Fold this sequence. Notes:
This protein is mainly alpha-helical. Helix content is 68%, strand content 1%.
Amino acid sequence: xxxxxxxxxxxxxxxAGAGLVAGAAAMGLMVGTPAGIRIALALPxxxxxxxxxxxxxxxxxxxxxxxxVALGTTRRLVSGVxxxxxYGDPLLLVGTVAWTILxxxxxxxxxxxxxxxxxxxxxxxxxxxxxxxxxxxxxxxAVGLSGALAVVVPMAAFLVGRSLVxxxxxxxxxxxxxxxxxxxxxxxxxxxxxxxxxxxxxxVAEQGYTALNVNGVTRAFASFSAAADYASFLxxxxxxxxxxxxxLARSSGCLAALALLGSALWYESAxxxxxLTVVAVSFVVAARAGLTLGRSLLxxxxxxxxxxxxxxxxxxxxxxxxxxxxxxxxxIEGLTDPFGEKSTLPLHIDLVSGGITAALDDPLGVGVxxxxxxxxxxxxxxxxxxxxxxxxxxxxxxFPGLIAYLxxxxxxxxxxxxxxxxxxxxxxxxxxxMVIVTSLHWLNGGLYATGFWPWLILGWxxxxxxxxxxxxxxxxxxxxxxx
Length: 483
């Protein structure tokens, strides 16, 4: 006679088998449509993220870095996903699920304990932006929710960095950025000088956006969902390699890597990222030399003032109609004359100042969805991004949000600089450079591969300060790539 527990096991086995069959059948039906393909891919990936996120959160974080870098190509390959469907693509929810699970694990491991001023400022800023999702001025709830998912959820990386990321893991993650940077740089240069693969070409033809067009040439975007994300990732990879370089005799590999990354960044033709990368490298160099923060600011300002002169001296007199020359021309026209008619800097300044002064009309803001694509997609008040964090925060959460954001910057960046100038090791220098090169875009919800990095690093810096305290400069610290 069969035992009851045997019957129960058999029943559970049969139900599990039936569930698998039903799931497979549902997947088979879904792949018949573009939307179904995305769901069929996103669902199992999200399930894996939940399962492994609870058991091996650090491994999931490593995989997440790769996932975001490959996200654009993945979306284009599976069904030609549109940039205009940003908040309707199930593949984007994988990142949301991942940050949610990792944040839960981080909180369970003490991410909210022993809070310092920076942690409190980050929590206040996230809270203000989250509450702003309910602001009726931006439109319906869908508008606010879409903005919160894009902007607030990636801020959970701060908790992850504070609780789950140690020096060894951060070295591994930054090393991954360095090597992936070379891969995407080669991909982007291929797009510029050889041509776009069919999946990229179809996406540009059907769904490409205005910012991709530079002097009649489509700028590269590599494997990313947006050209800006690609440019920012190249900038991050540059500062990681610069932080790694130590002496001419040992840096030949770094120089080759920097030549590839620099070429890709130059021909991507994102002038703002070029400037931020130069500033970040200047701060890394200053910190390595042990300069104080005040002197490093003067050094960075001097480098910026010299940049137009140097580029003007090196620039060719004429340009051909080739794609590379037109992209280079776009760079040179803006960088050599920042306030001229060929530069967009005055427009960016107007956008930022206009966004900040808009808080005078709505001191509590109009909601985070108003500065995201959600305002247009869901019929809300699409104010549009002001292209810089201070203005976007002021529009979204008013003066309280702007004050909280400035507090995060003032408390976070000097801490990173002091750590880097004191230790002068590749890890500290790279962390400083990563935060600076992404500055003004920490809250840009469309930068999936780069937007979370400053929050992750700021969280890690808090944990490092708490666990190690002030220490003298490290001598002969391990190389980042060999960690």
